[in-house]
Amino acid sequence: MKNNRLVNILVKQLTNRAGANELAELRDWEQQSTDNQQEADSLREAWDWGGRYEDALSPDVDAGWKRFKDRMDADRRDQKVPSVPAHPPREAKRVSLGFSRFLLRAAAVGAVLLSLTFVAKNYLQPSNRPFVVSTTDGQQEKVELTDGSVVWLNENSQLTFSNPNNRTERRVQLQGEAFFDVQRNPDKPFVIETGDAQVEVLGTSFNVRAVPGEAMTEVAVKTGKVAFKATTTEEELQLEANEKGTFWRESTKMEVEQDPQLNALSWHSKTLSYFKTPLLTVLKDFERLYDASSELGDDSLADCLYTLNTSTEVGLEQLIESLQVSYNAEVKQPQPRTYRLYGGSCD
Beta strand 338-342 with 141-144: parallel, antiparallel or unpaired? Predict the structure, then answer.
């Protein structure tokens, strides 16, 4: 990899700091030839090697980093390309590599650039140190993984992943809710583990909701196909686009249903869409999206069907008011963020 800009991007990819345009540039370069792909894989192996040896050896990190910087500085003088920044990944919500670990791995990449032989790949064990990204109330986070996949993490959720260069699979753990757009790779399945279920794909986009304390784990598929399996019973559903699968934790039953509007993704898509949808389903969606209670106080509207297309920027109070007007119902608020509809009719 003679282009130092691509080395820069690859190091940023491995520390989860690369932007979408940079990741696309790196992918395009790798796809140009088999040699490019092998060279990039060698650098990733060297990075992984640096992490594996960290606890077992005490290498001369300063010397390795100096050699790496000297080579990069020489190339930069020739090509006038900025060198790789020597700072650790940003802090805050991401739990990532420390500075010494970064130096060790950068030195390993530099060793490959200096044509040193990588001989340990067949017997060294992978690093077990995970990366963790978490969110709090009202916070959402976009996570770009090293394989080009992108994860949008909803509030109060946590994504854990380790050894991103594993040659046989890509595996993460999810607690909470996230929308996944997985880069296709038939040779390396992408697996999401929750507390009681597992989702496996080759490359597709879908939503997973596994919130502690809720009665179910849910998968809604936007594109492609998904294998959704209950870990306790080994029962598995094959879900396709516009389908939703649900695992009920207490009964251990699994259900699949058509979901053409995909309102399970509304927190991510920022849209709500209903066409002749039972009002009880609509109210459940409102509860989940706005973290509030909305229900029928009696059965007068239980069979009503609702049609609506709107943005989630519309507040819950406005949506409840639209139901009140549409069905001539009475709305009561026994406590904050709790709405009950009484009376009215479907006509």
Answer: unpaired
What is the rounded CA–CA span in Å between residue 308 and residue 304?
A: 13
Sole residue written with tokens 């879908």: 206
Q: Give me the pLDDT at residue 111, please.
A: 47
Q: Which residue has the tokens 């854990």?
A: 160
The pair phi, psi for residue 209, each rounded to 5°, is -125, 115
Looking at domain 270-342, does it have CATH number 3.55.50.30? yes
- Backbone dihedral angles phi then psi of residue 12, each to the nearest 5 degrees: -65, -35
CATH topology of domain 131-258: Jelly Rolls (2.60.120)
d(CA 230, CA 252): 8
Q: Which residue ranges make up each domain of the chain?
A: 4-113, 131-258, 270-342
Distance in angstroms (rounded) separating the CA atoms of residues 232 and 302: 35
Candidates 127, 144, 200; CA nearest to 170 is 200
pLDDT class of 114 with cuts at 50, 70, 90:
very low
Q: CB under 8 Å to 284, separation ≥6 — which residues?
A: none
User: Which one is predicted more confidently, 37 or 246?
Assistant: 246
CB within 8 Å of 309: residues ≥ 6 apart: 271, 272, 273, 274
pLDDT tens for each residue of 68-93: 556 556 555 555 444 444 344 333 34
Give the dihedral sign, CA 268/273/277/281: positive
Given the structure tokens 């990588």, which residue do they identify? 118
Helices and strands per DSSP (H, E), number in the chain? 8, 19
